[in-house]
Automatic annotation (TrEMBL):
The name this protein goes by in its record: TIGR03016 family PEP-CTERM system-associated outer membrane protein
Organism: Sapientia aquatica
Origin: domain of life: Bacteria
Length: 524
Protein backbone atom coordinates (compact mmCIF):
# COMPACT_ATOMS: atom_id res chain seq x y z
CA UNK A 1 0.00 0.00 0.00
CA UNK A 2 1.28 3.45 -0.85
CA UNK A 3 2.08 5.69 2.11
CA UNK A 4 0.48 9.12 1.71
CA UNK A 5 1.16 10.85 5.05
CA UNK A 6 4.47 12.54 5.88
CA UNK A 7 5.44 13.49 9.42
CA UNK A 8 6.58 17.04 10.10
CA UNK A 9 10.28 17.25 9.39
CA UNK A 10 12.84 19.41 7.69
CA UNK A 11 12.58 18.73 3.97
CA UNK A 12 15.83 17.86 2.26
CA UNK A 13 16.57 19.09 -1.22
CA UNK A 14 16.45 16.40 -3.86
CA UNK A 15 19.91 14.87 -4.25
CA UNK A 16 21.83 15.46 -7.42
CA UNK A 17 21.91 12.44 -9.67
CA UNK A 18 24.57 10.80 -11.81
CA UNK A 19 25.13 12.23 -15.27
CA UNK A 20 24.69 15.78 -14.02
CA UNK A 21 27.88 16.79 -15.84
CA UNK A 22 26.36 15.40 -19.05
CA UNK A 23 23.21 17.44 -18.41
CA UNK A 24 25.29 20.59 -17.92
CA UNK A 25 27.00 19.92 -21.22
CA UNK A 26 23.72 19.46 -23.06
CA UNK A 27 22.53 22.80 -21.65
CA UNK A 28 25.81 24.63 -22.23
CA UNK A 29 26.40 23.74 -25.89
CA UNK A 30 23.14 25.30 -27.23
CA UNK A 31 23.58 28.35 -25.02
CA UNK A 32 27.12 28.93 -26.28
CA UNK A 33 25.87 28.63 -29.84
CA UNK A 34 23.06 31.07 -29.11
CA UNK A 35 25.41 33.66 -27.64
CA UNK A 36 28.14 33.26 -30.26
CA UNK A 37 28.67 36.02 -32.77
CA UNK A 38 27.46 34.06 -35.78
CA UNK A 39 24.04 33.51 -34.16
CA UNK A 40 23.63 36.84 -32.35
CA UNK A 41 21.04 38.91 -34.19
CA UNK A 42 17.64 40.48 -33.83
CA UNK A 43 16.24 36.94 -33.71
CA UNK A 44 17.81 36.34 -30.28
CA UNK A 45 15.81 37.41 -27.23
CA UNK A 46 16.88 37.16 -23.60
CA UNK A 47 14.07 37.71 -21.07
CA UNK A 48 14.92 37.58 -17.35
CA UNK A 49 12.20 37.91 -14.71
CA UNK A 50 11.59 37.24 -11.04
CA UNK A 51 8.53 35.89 -9.23
CA UNK A 52 7.69 36.63 -5.61
CA UNK A 53 4.79 34.78 -4.05
CA UNK A 54 3.16 34.45 -0.65
CA UNK A 55 0.97 31.37 -0.10
CA UNK A 56 -1.17 30.05 2.73
CA UNK A 57 -1.69 26.27 2.65
CA UNK A 58 -3.99 24.63 5.22
CA UNK A 59 -2.68 21.06 4.64
CA UNK A 60 0.89 21.37 3.49
CA UNK A 61 1.71 17.63 3.97
CA UNK A 62 -1.53 16.42 2.30
CA UNK A 63 -2.42 14.50 5.44
CA UNK A 64 -5.70 12.84 6.36
CA UNK A 65 -8.23 14.75 8.55
CA UNK A 66 -7.02 15.21 12.11
CA UNK A 67 -3.34 15.28 11.12
CA UNK A 68 -3.22 18.44 8.98
CA UNK A 69 -0.53 21.12 9.25
CA UNK A 70 -0.91 24.65 7.88
CA UNK A 71 1.88 26.97 6.79
CA UNK A 72 2.69 30.34 5.25
CA UNK A 73 5.04 29.82 2.30
CA UNK A 74 7.31 32.52 0.89
CA UNK A 75 8.62 31.99 -2.63
CA UNK A 76 11.34 33.77 -4.61
CA UNK A 77 11.92 32.45 -8.14
CA UNK A 78 14.28 34.02 -10.70
CA UNK A 79 13.52 33.01 -14.29
CA UNK A 80 15.42 33.22 -17.57
CA UNK A 81 13.98 32.70 -21.05
CA UNK A 82 16.23 32.66 -24.14
CA UNK A 83 14.92 32.22 -27.67
CA UNK A 84 16.93 32.13 -30.88
CA UNK A 85 15.67 31.61 -34.40
CA UNK A 86 18.16 31.44 -37.24
CA UNK A 87 18.15 29.38 -40.46
CA UNK A 88 20.88 27.13 -39.02
CA UNK A 89 20.02 27.25 -35.33
CA UNK A 90 16.88 27.35 -33.19
CA UNK A 91 16.72 27.43 -29.40
CA UNK A 92 14.05 27.58 -26.71
CA UNK A 93 15.47 27.80 -23.18
CA UNK A 94 13.43 28.33 -20.02
CA UNK A 95 14.99 28.01 -16.56
CA UNK A 96 13.56 28.71 -13.09
CA UNK A 97 15.13 28.43 -9.63
CA UNK A 98 12.29 28.17 -7.11
CA UNK A 99 13.21 28.96 -3.48
CA UNK A 100 10.55 28.11 -0.86
CA UNK A 101 10.52 28.95 2.85
CA UNK A 102 7.87 27.39 5.12
CA UNK A 103 6.86 29.13 8.35
CA UNK A 104 5.18 27.72 11.49
CA UNK A 105 5.06 24.02 12.37
CA UNK A 106 6.05 23.03 8.85
CA UNK A 107 9.25 25.09 9.06
CA UNK A 108 11.41 23.94 6.17
CA UNK A 109 13.41 25.09 3.18
CA UNK A 110 13.17 23.72 -0.35
CA UNK A 111 14.80 24.61 -3.65
CA UNK A 112 13.41 23.34 -6.95
CA UNK A 113 14.89 23.69 -10.39
CA UNK A 114 12.75 23.78 -13.53
CA UNK A 115 14.30 23.58 -16.98
CA UNK A 116 12.88 23.22 -20.48
CA UNK A 117 15.42 23.30 -23.32
CA UNK A 118 15.09 22.34 -26.97
CA UNK A 119 17.51 23.18 -29.77
CA UNK A 120 18.11 22.24 -33.41
CA UNK A 121 21.40 22.94 -35.20
CA UNK A 122 22.32 22.58 -38.87
CA UNK A 123 26.08 22.17 -39.39
CA UNK A 124 26.05 21.12 -43.05
CA UNK A 125 22.89 21.98 -44.98
CA UNK A 126 21.05 18.95 -46.31
CA UNK A 127 23.44 16.61 -44.49
CA UNK A 128 24.51 17.04 -40.82
CA UNK A 129 22.23 18.14 -37.96
CA UNK A 130 22.03 17.99 -34.17
CA UNK A 131 18.97 17.94 -31.89
CA UNK A 132 19.38 18.46 -28.15
CA UNK A 133 16.92 18.69 -25.27
CA UNK A 134 17.04 18.76 -21.49
CA UNK A 135 14.46 19.06 -18.75
CA UNK A 136 14.20 19.29 -14.98
CA UNK A 137 10.80 19.24 -13.34
CA UNK A 138 8.82 18.04 -10.34
CA UNK A 139 5.90 15.68 -10.69
CA UNK A 140 3.84 13.01 -8.96
CA UNK A 141 5.43 9.56 -8.84
CA UNK A 142 2.16 7.56 -8.81
CA UNK A 143 -1.61 8.16 -9.09
CA UNK A 144 -2.10 5.90 -6.05
CA UNK A 145 -1.19 8.59 -3.52
CA UNK A 146 -1.81 12.28 -2.99
CA UNK A 147 -1.73 14.01 -6.38
CA UNK A 148 -0.96 17.72 -6.55
CA UNK A 149 0.37 20.07 -9.23
CA UNK A 150 1.78 22.50 -6.65
CA UNK A 151 5.42 22.47 -5.56
CA UNK A 152 4.28 24.36 -2.45
CA UNK A 153 3.06 21.12 -0.86
CA UNK A 154 5.47 18.84 1.02
CA UNK A 155 4.01 15.66 -0.41
CA UNK A 156 5.89 12.36 -0.26
CA UNK A 157 4.49 11.65 -3.71
CA UNK A 158 6.53 14.38 -5.43
CA UNK A 159 9.82 13.63 -7.18
CA UNK A 160 12.38 15.51 -9.21
CA UNK A 161 12.95 14.29 -12.75
CA UNK A 162 16.00 15.10 -14.88
CA UNK A 163 16.22 14.10 -18.53
CA UNK A 164 18.39 14.92 -21.49
CA UNK A 165 18.74 13.77 -25.06
CA UNK A 166 21.36 14.55 -27.71
CA UNK A 167 20.94 13.26 -31.24
CA UNK A 168 23.34 13.90 -34.14
CA UNK A 169 21.94 12.74 -37.45
CA UNK A 170 22.52 12.67 -41.19
CA UNK A 171 19.62 13.66 -43.43
CA UNK A 172 19.70 14.16 -47.15
CA UNK A 173 17.59 14.09 -50.30
CA UNK A 174 18.39 11.87 -53.24
CA UNK A 175 17.09 14.21 -55.93
CA UNK A 176 13.32 13.69 -56.22
CA UNK A 177 13.57 9.98 -55.58
CA UNK A 178 14.02 9.55 -51.84
CA UNK A 179 14.86 11.08 -48.45
CA UNK A 180 17.16 9.29 -46.05
CA UNK A 181 17.96 9.78 -42.36
CA UNK A 182 20.40 8.06 -40.01
CA UNK A 183 20.15 9.13 -36.38
CA UNK A 184 22.02 8.18 -33.22
CA UNK A 185 20.66 9.41 -29.88
CA UNK A 186 21.93 9.23 -26.34
CA UNK A 187 19.42 9.99 -23.61
CA UNK A 188 19.27 9.81 -19.84
CA UNK A 189 16.49 9.65 -17.23
CA UNK A 190 17.23 10.26 -13.54
CA UNK A 191 14.82 10.67 -10.63
CA UNK A 192 15.16 11.59 -6.97
CA UNK A 193 13.80 8.13 -6.07
CA UNK A 194 17.33 6.69 -6.23
CA UNK A 195 19.50 4.72 -8.62
CA UNK A 196 16.88 2.00 -9.07
CA UNK A 197 15.02 4.11 -11.63
CA UNK A 198 18.00 5.81 -13.31
CA UNK A 199 18.80 4.78 -16.86
CA UNK A 200 20.63 5.69 -20.06
CA UNK A 201 19.75 4.59 -23.56
CA UNK A 202 21.53 4.41 -26.90
CA UNK A 203 19.27 4.39 -29.94
CA UNK A 204 19.96 3.99 -33.64
CA UNK A 205 17.21 4.93 -36.10
CA UNK A 206 17.39 4.69 -39.85
CA UNK A 207 14.77 5.33 -42.49
CA UNK A 208 14.57 5.75 -46.24
CA UNK A 209 11.38 7.23 -47.72
CA UNK A 210 10.17 7.80 -51.25
CA UNK A 211 10.41 11.32 -52.65
CA UNK A 212 8.03 13.57 -54.62
CA UNK A 213 8.52 11.55 -57.83
CA UNK A 214 6.44 8.74 -56.25
CA UNK A 215 3.10 10.53 -56.35
CA UNK A 216 0.75 7.54 -56.51
CA UNK A 217 2.67 4.74 -54.80
CA UNK A 218 4.98 5.68 -51.90
CA UNK A 219 7.30 3.46 -49.86
CA UNK A 220 9.50 3.48 -46.77
CA UNK A 221 12.06 1.31 -45.00
CA UNK A 222 12.64 1.77 -41.25
CA UNK A 223 14.92 0.30 -38.58
CA UNK A 224 15.15 0.87 -34.81
CA UNK A 225 17.60 -0.49 -32.22
CA UNK A 226 17.26 0.86 -28.67
CA UNK A 227 19.24 -0.42 -25.70
CA UNK A 228 18.15 0.82 -22.24
CA UNK A 229 20.84 0.54 -19.57
CA UNK A 230 19.43 0.60 -16.04
CA UNK A 231 21.74 1.25 -13.10
CA UNK A 232 20.27 -1.51 -10.92
CA UNK A 233 18.59 -3.89 -13.37
CA UNK A 234 19.37 -5.90 -16.52
CA UNK A 235 19.38 -3.99 -19.80
CA UNK A 236 16.32 -3.94 -22.05
CA UNK A 237 16.68 -4.09 -25.84
CA UNK A 238 13.97 -3.07 -28.32
CA UNK A 239 14.50 -3.76 -32.03
CA UNK A 240 12.27 -3.66 -35.08
CA UNK A 241 12.49 -3.24 -38.82
CA UNK A 242 9.77 -2.82 -41.44
CA UNK A 243 8.95 -2.07 -45.04
CA UNK A 244 5.84 -0.02 -45.76
CA UNK A 245 3.97 1.21 -48.81
CA UNK A 246 0.94 3.31 -49.61
CA UNK A 247 -1.37 3.86 -52.56
CA UNK A 248 -2.98 7.27 -53.15
CA UNK A 249 -6.32 6.98 -54.90
CA UNK A 250 -6.53 10.78 -54.81
CA UNK A 251 -5.17 13.73 -52.85
CA UNK A 252 -7.86 12.98 -50.25
CA UNK A 253 -7.72 9.21 -49.74
CA UNK A 254 -4.90 6.68 -49.43
CA UNK A 255 -4.35 3.19 -48.07
CA UNK A 256 -1.14 1.96 -46.44
CA UNK A 257 0.43 -1.19 -45.07
CA UNK A 258 3.67 -2.61 -43.76
CA UNK A 259 5.46 -5.86 -42.92
CA UNK A 260 8.32 -6.32 -40.50
CA UNK A 261 9.89 -8.12 -37.58
CA UNK A 262 10.24 -7.25 -33.88
CA UNK A 263 12.94 -8.68 -31.62
CA UNK A 264 12.98 -7.43 -28.04
CA UNK A 265 14.72 -8.53 -24.88
CA UNK A 266 12.95 -8.35 -21.50
CA UNK A 267 11.47 -10.92 -19.07
CA UNK A 268 7.88 -11.37 -20.22
CA UNK A 269 4.99 -12.23 -17.90
CA UNK A 270 4.09 -15.37 -19.89
CA UNK A 271 7.67 -16.61 -20.34
CA UNK A 272 7.65 -16.45 -24.16
CA UNK A 273 10.28 -14.64 -26.19
CA UNK A 274 9.17 -11.04 -27.00
CA UNK A 275 9.69 -11.30 -30.74
CA UNK A 276 7.84 -12.15 -33.92
CA UNK A 277 6.53 -11.03 -37.29
CA UNK A 278 4.44 -7.89 -37.53
CA UNK A 279 2.23 -6.36 -40.19
CA UNK A 280 -0.20 -3.45 -40.45
CA UNK A 281 -2.92 -2.04 -42.69
CA UNK A 282 -4.81 1.22 -42.63
CA UNK A 283 -6.01 4.32 -44.45
CA UNK A 284 -5.89 8.11 -44.29
CA UNK A 285 -8.65 10.50 -45.37
CA UNK A 286 -8.11 14.26 -45.65
CA UNK A 287 -11.12 15.76 -47.45
CA UNK A 288 -9.93 19.31 -46.60
CA UNK A 289 -6.90 20.94 -45.02
CA UNK A 290 -9.02 21.26 -41.86
CA UNK A 291 -10.25 17.67 -41.57
CA UNK A 292 -8.27 14.46 -41.23
CA UNK A 293 -8.84 10.84 -40.24
CA UNK A 294 -6.40 7.95 -40.08
CA UNK A 295 -6.99 4.37 -38.90
CA UNK A 296 -4.38 1.60 -38.61
CA UNK A 297 -4.51 -1.97 -37.32
CA UNK A 298 -1.27 -3.83 -36.49
CA UNK A 299 -0.45 -7.45 -35.72
CA UNK A 300 2.26 -7.93 -33.04
CA UNK A 301 3.68 -10.90 -31.15
CA UNK A 302 1.79 -9.62 -28.07
CA UNK A 303 -1.55 -9.19 -29.88
CA UNK A 304 -3.48 -6.92 -32.21
CA UNK A 305 -3.35 -3.15 -31.72
CA UNK A 306 -5.24 -0.24 -33.26
CA UNK A 307 -4.55 3.44 -33.79
CA UNK A 308 -7.10 6.12 -34.65
CA UNK A 309 -6.45 9.84 -35.10
CA UNK A 310 -9.14 12.32 -36.12
CA UNK A 311 -9.16 16.10 -36.12
CA UNK A 312 -11.42 18.92 -37.28
CA UNK A 313 -10.59 22.61 -37.31
CA UNK A 314 -13.03 25.46 -37.82
CA UNK A 315 -12.45 29.20 -37.66
CA UNK A 316 -13.03 29.26 -33.90
CA UNK A 317 -12.59 25.66 -32.71
CA UNK A 318 -10.34 22.61 -32.81
CA UNK A 319 -11.61 19.05 -32.24
CA UNK A 320 -9.42 15.98 -31.84
CA UNK A 321 -9.88 12.30 -31.04
CA UNK A 322 -7.10 9.77 -30.64
CA UNK A 323 -6.83 6.12 -29.71
CA UNK A 324 -3.51 4.30 -29.50
CA UNK A 325 -2.26 0.91 -28.35
CA UNK A 326 1.36 -0.12 -27.98
CA UNK A 327 4.29 -1.00 -25.75
CA UNK A 328 5.58 1.79 -23.55
CA UNK A 329 7.86 2.42 -20.57
CA UNK A 330 7.79 5.16 -17.95
CA UNK A 331 11.03 6.60 -19.31
CA UNK A 332 9.39 6.97 -22.74
CA UNK A 333 6.81 9.27 -21.22
CA UNK A 334 9.48 11.20 -19.30
CA UNK A 335 11.49 11.88 -22.46
CA UNK A 336 8.39 12.60 -24.55
CA UNK A 337 5.83 13.67 -21.92
CA UNK A 338 2.27 12.51 -22.46
CA UNK A 339 1.00 16.06 -22.12
CA UNK A 340 -0.82 18.55 -24.29
CA UNK A 341 1.49 21.47 -24.95
CA UNK A 342 -0.49 24.68 -24.36
CA UNK A 343 1.37 26.60 -27.04
CA UNK A 344 0.82 23.87 -29.67
CA UNK A 345 -2.86 23.65 -28.81
CA UNK A 346 -3.35 27.41 -29.19
CA UNK A 347 -1.35 27.35 -32.41
CA UNK A 348 -3.89 24.96 -33.95
CA UNK A 349 -6.78 26.94 -32.51
CA UNK A 350 -5.62 30.28 -33.94
CA UNK A 351 -4.32 29.00 -37.25
CA UNK A 352 -7.33 30.33 -39.14
CA UNK A 353 -7.57 33.70 -37.41
CA UNK A 354 -3.80 34.48 -37.51
CA UNK A 355 -2.38 33.02 -40.72
CA UNK A 356 1.20 34.31 -40.35
CA UNK A 357 3.12 31.72 -38.24
CA UNK A 358 5.50 34.22 -36.63
CA UNK A 359 2.73 36.65 -35.70
CA UNK A 360 0.63 33.75 -34.39
CA UNK A 361 3.46 32.54 -32.14
CA UNK A 362 4.02 36.06 -30.81
CA UNK A 363 0.30 36.33 -30.00
CA UNK A 364 0.38 32.92 -28.26
CA UNK A 365 3.42 33.84 -26.16
CA UNK A 366 1.80 37.12 -25.13
CA UNK A 367 -1.47 35.35 -24.27
CA UNK A 368 0.22 32.70 -22.11
CA UNK A 369 2.27 35.38 -20.35
CA UNK A 370 -0.69 37.65 -19.59
CA UNK A 371 -3.00 34.87 -18.37
CA UNK A 372 -0.41 32.81 -16.52
CA UNK A 373 -1.44 29.58 -18.29
CA UNK A 374 0.61 26.44 -17.52
CA UNK A 375 3.07 25.25 -20.19
CA UNK A 376 1.17 21.96 -20.47
CA UNK A 377 -2.38 20.83 -19.82
CA UNK A 378 -3.01 18.19 -17.17
CA UNK A 379 -2.78 14.55 -18.22
CA UNK A 380 -2.91 11.22 -16.32
CA UNK A 381 -0.15 10.32 -13.86
CA UNK A 382 1.58 6.99 -14.33
CA UNK A 383 3.48 5.08 -11.65
CA UNK A 384 7.25 5.34 -12.02
CA UNK A 385 8.53 1.86 -12.88
CA UNK A 386 11.09 0.13 -15.08
CA UNK A 387 8.58 -2.36 -16.45
CA UNK A 388 7.39 -2.60 -20.04
CA UNK A 389 3.62 -2.07 -20.36
CA UNK A 390 0.97 -2.44 -23.01
CA UNK A 391 -0.87 0.88 -22.90
CA UNK A 392 -4.29 1.55 -24.42
CA UNK A 393 -5.03 5.26 -24.54
CA UNK A 394 -8.20 7.06 -25.59
CA UNK A 395 -8.09 10.86 -25.53
CA UNK A 396 -10.47 13.50 -26.86
CA UNK A 397 -10.31 17.28 -26.69
CA UNK A 398 -12.06 20.39 -27.99
CA UNK A 399 -11.05 24.02 -27.82
CA UNK A 400 -13.27 26.99 -28.65
CA UNK A 401 -12.18 30.60 -28.77
CA UNK A 402 -14.29 33.76 -28.77
CA UNK A 403 -13.78 37.50 -28.62
CA UNK A 404 -13.04 37.51 -24.88
CA UNK A 405 -12.64 33.90 -23.77
CA UNK A 406 -11.13 30.53 -24.66
CA UNK A 407 -12.35 27.13 -23.43
CA UNK A 408 -10.34 23.88 -23.63
CA UNK A 409 -11.98 20.59 -22.62
CA UNK A 410 -10.38 17.14 -22.64
CA UNK A 411 -11.24 13.56 -21.63
CA UNK A 412 -9.05 10.48 -21.24
CA UNK A 413 -9.30 6.75 -20.56
CA UNK A 414 -5.97 4.92 -20.21
CA UNK A 415 -5.17 1.35 -19.17
CA UNK A 416 -1.73 -0.17 -18.59
CA UNK A 417 -1.14 -3.95 -18.47
CA UNK A 418 2.28 -5.32 -17.57
CA UNK A 419 4.26 -7.07 -20.30
CA UNK A 420 7.50 -7.55 -18.34
CA UNK A 421 7.94 -9.03 -14.88
CA UNK A 422 8.50 -7.11 -11.66
CA UNK A 423 12.07 -7.51 -10.52
CA UNK A 424 12.95 -8.18 -6.89
CA UNK A 425 14.29 -4.63 -6.58
CA UNK A 426 11.13 -3.06 -7.97
CA UNK A 427 8.77 -5.10 -5.82
CA UNK A 428 10.37 -3.95 -2.58
CA UNK A 429 9.97 -0.20 -3.11
CA UNK A 430 7.37 1.81 -1.22
CA UNK A 431 5.65 2.93 -4.41
CA UNK A 432 3.37 -0.08 -4.37
CA UNK A 433 3.92 -0.96 -8.02
CA UNK A 434 0.60 -1.96 -9.52
CA UNK A 435 0.73 -4.29 -12.49
CA UNK A 436 -2.59 -3.46 -14.19
CA UNK A 437 -4.12 -0.01 -13.83
CA UNK A 438 -6.87 2.10 -15.33
CA UNK A 439 -7.24 5.89 -15.25
CA UNK A 440 -10.22 7.92 -16.39
CA UNK A 441 -10.87 11.61 -16.10
CA UNK A 442 -11.04 14.97 -17.75
CA UNK A 443 -10.00 18.60 -17.56
CA UNK A 444 -11.54 21.95 -18.38
CA UNK A 445 -9.71 25.23 -18.74
CA UNK A 446 -11.49 28.56 -19.26
CA UNK A 447 -9.73 31.88 -19.78
CA UNK A 448 -11.80 35.04 -19.60
CA UNK A 449 -10.47 38.46 -20.62
CA UNK A 450 -12.25 41.31 -18.81
CA UNK A 451 -9.99 43.90 -20.43
CA UNK A 452 -6.63 44.04 -22.22
CA UNK A 453 -4.93 44.04 -18.79
CA UNK A 454 -7.24 41.91 -16.64
CA UNK A 455 -8.06 38.22 -17.07
CA UNK A 456 -9.22 35.19 -15.12
CA UNK A 457 -8.37 31.52 -15.52
CA UNK A 458 -10.53 28.65 -14.24
CA UNK A 459 -9.19 25.08 -14.27
CA UNK A 460 -10.85 21.91 -13.01
CA UNK A 461 -9.29 18.46 -13.30
CA UNK A 462 -10.63 15.01 -12.37
CA UNK A 463 -8.64 11.77 -12.28
CA UNK A 464 -9.72 8.31 -11.06
CA UNK A 465 -7.07 5.59 -10.81
CA UNK A 466 -7.93 1.95 -10.13
CA UNK A 467 -5.67 -1.06 -9.71
CA UNK A 468 -6.96 -4.38 -11.00
CA UNK A 469 -4.27 -6.23 -9.04
CA UNK A 470 -5.27 -5.17 -5.51
CA UNK A 471 -8.48 -3.15 -5.88
CA UNK A 472 -7.04 0.17 -4.62
CA UNK A 473 -8.90 3.20 -5.99
CA UNK A 474 -7.89 6.86 -5.78
CA UNK A 475 -10.03 9.77 -6.97
CA UNK A 476 -8.55 13.24 -7.28
CA UNK A 477 -10.28 16.54 -8.04
CA UNK A 478 -8.30 19.76 -8.40
CA UNK A 479 -9.96 23.15 -8.90
CA UNK A 480 -7.95 26.34 -9.45
CA UNK A 481 -9.02 29.89 -10.20
CA UNK A 482 -6.59 32.73 -10.88
CA UNK A 483 -7.17 36.46 -11.36
CA UNK A 484 -4.42 38.32 -13.27
CA UNK A 485 -3.85 42.04 -13.75
CA UNK A 486 -1.05 43.69 -15.73
CA UNK A 487 -0.11 46.82 -13.78
CA UNK A 488 2.40 47.84 -16.45
CA UNK A 489 4.35 46.04 -19.21
CA UNK A 490 6.91 44.77 -16.68
CA UNK A 491 4.73 43.98 -13.66
CA UNK A 492 1.88 41.48 -13.31
CA UNK A 493 -0.04 40.62 -10.14
CA UNK A 494 -2.06 37.44 -9.59
CA UNK A 495 -4.40 36.11 -6.93
CA UNK A 496 -4.94 32.34 -6.92
CA UNK A 497 -7.17 29.92 -5.04
CA UNK A 498 -6.76 26.15 -5.28
CA UNK A 499 -8.89 23.38 -3.77
CA UNK A 500 -7.72 19.78 -3.81
CA UNK A 501 -9.94 16.87 -2.81
CA UNK A 502 -8.53 13.33 -2.74
CA UNK A 503 -10.54 10.25 -1.80
CA UNK A 504 -9.67 6.54 -1.67
CA UNK A 505 -11.32 3.28 -0.67
CA UNK A 506 -9.36 3.30 2.61
CA UNK A 507 -9.27 6.03 5.29
CA UNK A 508 -5.61 7.10 5.12
CA UNK A 509 -5.99 8.00 1.43
CA UNK A 510 -8.55 10.75 2.09
CA UNK A 511 -7.53 14.40 2.42
CA UNK A 512 -8.42 17.94 1.41
CA UNK A 513 -6.13 20.88 0.74
CA UNK A 514 -6.77 24.60 0.19
CA UNK A 515 -4.23 27.22 -0.70
CA UNK A 516 -4.39 30.94 -1.49
CA UNK A 517 -1.49 32.73 -3.22
CA UNK A 518 -0.61 36.31 -4.08
CA UNK A 519 2.03 36.67 -6.80
CA UNK A 520 4.13 39.50 -8.24
CA UNK A 521 5.94 38.83 -11.55
CA UNK A 522 8.64 41.37 -12.48
CA UNK A 523 9.98 41.32 -16.05
CA UNK A 524 13.52 42.75 -15.95
Amino acid sequence: MVTTMVKNATVRNHPRKPCQSDLVGIIGIPLMLALSSNVWSDELTVSPSIVTKETYNDNVFLSQPGFTTSSWITELTPQLVIKASEPSFKLNFNYELQNLHYAGDAHAERTNQMLDLNSTSSFVKNLLYLDASAAINQQNSTPFAGITNSNATLSANRLELRTYSVAPYLKTNFAQEATGELRFSRDSVNTSLGSLYNSNANTVKANLKSGPSFATVDWNVQYLNEKILYEAEPAVTLQNGSFGSGYHFSSEFAINGSVGYEKNNYPTTNGTAPQGNTWSAGFTWTPTDRTSLSVTGTKHYYGDTYTVAASERTFASVWSLGYNEGLITSRDQFLIPATTNTSDFLNSLWQSSITNPEQRQQAIDAFIHSTGLPNTLTTPVNTVTNQVFLQKSLQASVAVTGAQNTVIFSLFDITRDEESLNTAANSTTNLGLLSNTKQTGGNILWTLNFSPRTSAVFMDGYNKAKSASNGITYTNNNFTTTLNHQLDPKLRVSLEFQHLNNSANFNTGNFRDNLVSFTLLFSL
